Amino acid sequence: MTAFFQTLGMSYEWAWFVATICGILLIALPLMLAVAMIIYADRKIWAAMALRRGPNVVGPFGLLQSFADGLKVFLQETIIPSASNRGLFLIAPIITFTVALMAWAVIPFNSGAVLADINVGLLYILAISSLGVYGVVISGWSSNSKYPFFSAMRAAAQMISYEVSIGFILICVVLWAGTFNMLGIIEAQKAHVLGFVNAFGLNPLLFPIAVMFLISAMAETARAPFDLTEAESELVAGYQTEYSSMSFALFWLGEYANVLLMCTLNAVLFWGGYLPPVDWAPLYAVPGIIWLFAKILFFFFVFSWVKATVPRYRYDQLMRLGWKVFLPISLFWVFLVSGYLMWTGHFG
User: Fold this and answer.
1) Residue 191: helix, strand or coil by DSSP?
2) How far is it, in rounded angstroms, from Cα 213 to Cα 332?
3) Domain boundaries of the chain, sorted by first residue
4) Of 173, 197, 219, 199, the residue nearest 319 (C-alpha)
5) pTM for the structure as a whole
């Protein structure tokens, strides 16, 4: 894209700048539209599983319901509690929202179609996702209210706990792919299983950690059955209790952007990303971005399915699963995978 703008007479610096801005908009704007539509899809899936209709009034089939909700919160008054820390109170939802968008910079949508093709893309995602805890903690503390503060402490402990096991799971993927580059990880999955299946997830040694990653992703994004940060019976409405209007909406946009990101990471790290399921020439005629979106939608359906059917965990159960089950297993799996790769001469 930089070369295209250079043909219009721009210097390299300006061409690079304009191309980068265009790349950011090409990711951010469709992502915002996707967030609005998956909120609608989420509600429709829950309704179908509870034998209800779901949104069906605003627009055809209720498709405009999310936009109506967005307009409603936009027109509401932003109320800032008098006892709160005003500056931190306002910046917390902005942190949550912007951090959720930043991680998408290294996601490959097709071969070569990535905004920032950096060698440490996976480390970048791990670092950026870790920053999300700051928005949560700052919002709970700056509200100067007990319920949001308790919820923020819970959320911080939950996110940090499951990031540890996610980190060990990612080490296994990196060991097998031999790179931190996201494109490299996807290409390493080409014909990986039985010589024709494009996926790490169907590798018998990696399938268990693919399942662990899916469950940890639900806990990391505070989705049911791990949505203890928003348990109404215990914490009123979580760390965003004191928020209203667009500041409240930014938390929800950030949360759903994170859910989409985790669905994408499941597809990219274990299920071939933009590659077709099978390494068969005719399937490559379908654009890679279509395969990626199909996999993202499948994992989002799984997220919604679990939320509609699985009862909420207690907090002690949540912490036990993270620290006493997932952490030892993921740590053991690092030794198992690295030992197997050394035994088979993978590093030679």
Assistant:
1) coil
2) 15
3) 76-343
4) 219
5) 0.92
